[in-house]
Amino acid sequence: MRWFRVDNFYDSWRPLYRVTRCFGLTSLTFDFREQTARRTLTDQLILIGGVLMFLFVVLGTLLNLRDKVTELSDSYLLSIGLFGIIGALSVSQLLALLMNYYNMERIFKIAAIVARVDQQIATNLGYRWNYQKEHLFGVLFIAWVYLQWILFTLGLLWRVEPVKTYDNDVFTIVKSMTSFLWTMSSYQTNAIFIISTMAIIWRRFAALNQQIINLYQVTTAPAHPKRNQPLKLIKRIAIVHDQLGDAMQLFNVCFSTEALLSLAPGFAFIIFALFGLVHSYAASDDEQSRSWAASNVIYAGMYVVQLVQLIVAASLVNCECKHTATLVHKMACYGSHDSVALRELRIVSQQMWHKAPVITCGLFYFDWELMYTHSVTMRWFKVNGLLDTLRPVYLASNILLVNFTSYNFATRTVHRTLFDLTRFVFTLLLDVFLTWRAIEAGQAFLKGTESMLINGGLYGSIVLNFLLTSSVPLWNSLNGTAIFEMFHGIEACNDELQPLGVKIDLQKRHLAFTVYAVLSTSNGFFVLIMNWFFPSVVEKITVPEMFPDGWAVLALARTNFITGISSCYSTLTLLAIRKYFNLLNETVANYFPTSTDSNPSSSALNSVRLIRKLAYMHDRLSRSVELFNRCFASQLLFLTCSGFGFTLFSAFGVIHSFATNAPEADRRLAMVNIGYDGVLMINIVTFVVFSSLVNDEGKATAVMIHKAIAYGSYDRRTLRELRTLSQQLGSRSPVISCGLIDFNWEFFYTVWFLV
Question: Transmembrane segments in this chain: where (predicted)?
């Protein structure tokens, strides 16, 4: 296997460089003699060729498959899922191509760090690298990955004849096979790139740990042959570890997102393939469907193998990195050192404690827990406070152009950048255009039924809804700082409650908030998917003229996105305020007598300081309620009123369609309207329920303080503080209100009266 002389790391890295360059994943030309990289015209052409391949071959094949999406399985849901996964796999490879082009200088920086680490380990620590063996293993791994892909592809074609799927259309067959080969070969090459890079870093950590073990044997010996030798080695080990930590961080920047984008469709394909196999034998007697299902399961084995290989490589890197810190701790504990060497060991130990890199994409760690722990998959980051739990909603609002203020979650500060202002101006222009197109397209409602009153009412409600939702981004931009202040005030209560022994599972709340954010925005994605991929279904159940073009569809989806994000923000904020009011009341009941049989706990704080702390928390929560009323209450009132109007006319539309023997199309439209209205009513009911809970918990605090005064015996100073707190609660009773009405159960029939 001596293709050429392998003298250094770059020579052993050459096969990986060549194979990734063939598929456009390496877009820098590397000179192995000078050991320098530069971007040439060839690299630019490689990128352009990859993008054109995707646009003209892969995208064209997906559009051809759209007409045959229902033939993938007897189940409509499974067919749509498999079609979506195929599209996601193709798009993920295009994103990998673009991301590698953008991060290529960082990727070559990883190679430069590894080459420098090899020299330092060889020169300073006396380790001899066998680059010939490393080169051989690299070639064998590349061959193994492509071989397994070929075997699984043969398994896919075992009982399926693709020619029949395309009705013997030679051009379509060639185009589809080219698309399949390009997508999957690029997928395999990207997996080789990612796993091989992790293996390279793991090998360096393993060599470093071996030298630390040798040093450990020296430092635990009865006598040191050279007094300064351990001190020098400790410093060199610290430098090498720091450089390898930098390489891991660069890997996370360059490859972790690509790994996630590749694993997610693969994991989804595994799930849909298994369900498809069960469905084919449980609900179908078609032999062709069973053959497709069995072939999909066989091909899903390739994604399982890729997932296991990636997890193994990432776990090895993480374990070796942690092992380095463990060995340094052992040296400090069990070795015999002078004061200088011991101080150096402590410095290195602190360095490894502060800088403990892991292979992660930011969403979760790539380790064995990823295979079986669902909670780990939701760990986007370490959750330290309430603002971290709300980060999924914040990211969704930024992506969907609803929020235009940047929050720094590390320093807990808020600012507005030039990019935020640019997004805001673009959103204003976009919303004005989409609102105009939606109002024009909504005129189809004027011909929806035989009743002009119902048609006019529905059209007016739709127009009002479009106008109100288009103003929400402007409102959020004006109140961006106030929204952050509201969240910061709630988080301050969390910091005050922790010393009192109150613990909150922020990780669980983060998971719940993420799920709720996905559900809140799903309606907009549903509108896009149904109108763009299944227009025939939409034409049967709605007014065809309402969606004359893609802009009208985008306007409707935009309205649903804004409504969903606004509902998500308001509901989760109310949930957080209610939770901390509840914890505040529990704290009062825990440290003060609130009944004849209560047994309050003792506190490290004296009674006066504890009462003042409770007063401070209640004041911050009350301030958060006031800011909520300022930021969200008015817009929610308007959206709720428009929703109630749509509810009223949708209900009358259903009654009219069944009472007047209206055509079947009118009845279907009436049922679709009432179904869409159900989504709006869920948002309204959820908002009113949590508003009522916040109001009740806010009032309960005053009741708890009155009970504490009535059932407890205190000295004069403590009693004065309790009375002062009682007066504060009486003069400042937080209520969720827009200034016109309070949001509680009376809100339902009040709005009905207004409507």
Answer: 45-65, 77-99, 136-160, 180-202, 259-278, 298-317, 352-372, 392-409, 421-439, 459-478, 513-534, 554-577, 636-659, 674-694
The angle at the Cα of 380, spanning 374 to 383, to the nearest 5 degrees, equals 100
Please give the full DSSP string across 461-520, using - where no structure is assigned: HHHHHHHHHHHHHHHHHHTHHHHHHHHHHHHHHHHHHGGGT----HHHHHHHHHHHHHHH
Beta bridge partners, 30, equal 37
Check residue 737 and report its DSSP letter.
B
Q: Cβ distance 208 to 39 under 8 Å? A: no
Query: Dihedrals φ, ψ of 454, to 5°?
Result: -65, -40
**What is the spatial distance between Cα 575 and Cα 510, in angstroms, rounded to a whole number?**
12
Determine the Cα–Cα distance for residues 331 and 312; give it in Å rounded to an integer. Answer: 28
Residue in this structure with the two tokens 């106030």, named with its chain if needed: 482
Angle, in degrees to the nearest 10, between helices 76-124 and 170-219: 40
621 token code pair: 């929560």
Evaluate whether 581 touches 735 at the Cβ level (below 8 Å): no
User: Cα 209 vs. chain centroid, distance in angstroms?
Assistant: 35
What does DSSP say about strands 36-38 and 29-31: parallel, antiparallel, or unpaired?
antiparallel
| C-alpha span between 637 and 632 (Å, rounded) | 9
444-493 pLDDT tens trace? 777 766 777 877 887 888 888 888 888 888 888 888 888 888 888 888 88
DSSP string covering 247-305: HHHHHIIIIIHHHHHHHHHHHHHHHHHHHHHHHHHHH---HHHHHHHHHHHHHHHHHHH
What residue has token string 């990955």?
145
9-29: pLDDT as tens digits: 888 888 888 888 887 788 888
Q: Is the dihedral of CA 348, 350, 354, 356 positive or negative?
A: positive
As given in the structure block, the two tokens for residue 126 are 């006396």
- Residue ranges with strand state E in 258-371: none
pLDDT of residue 169: 57
Secondary-structure breakdown of the chain: helix, strand, coil percentages, each rounded to the nearest 5: 80, 0, 20
CA separation, residue 670 to residues 306, 662, 667, 682 (Å): 49, 10, 5, 19
- Using DSSP's 3-state secondary structure scheme, residue 554 falls into helix
Amino acid 277: pLDDT:
76
Residue 518, phi then psi, degrees to nearest 5: -65, -45
Cα separation of 160 and 156, whole Å?
7
Neighbouring-strand partners of residue 415: 406
The closest alpha carbon to 240, from 336, 366, 122, belongs to 122
Angle at 440 (CA atoms; ends 439, 441), nearest 5 degrees: 95
What pTM value is reported for the model?
0.54
Distance from C-alpha of 67 to C-alpha of 90, rounded to nearest angstrom:
18
Mark 232-258 as b/e (b = at least 16 C-beta within 10 Å): ebbebbbebbeebbbbbbbbbebbbbb
Q: How many angstroms separate the CA atoms of 337 and 325, rounded?
A: 18
The amino acid occupying position 638 is F
Longest dimension (CA), the chain: 104
* Beta carbons of 462 and 442 less than 8 angstroms apart: yes
State the residue for tokens 């706990």.
Answer: 601
Q: Which residue positions in the chain have pLDDT lower than 70?
A: 1-4, 57-77, 158-176, 215-230, 282-286, 288, 332, 334-337, 349-356, 362-384, 448-449, 532-548, 596-605, 665, 730-732, 745-755
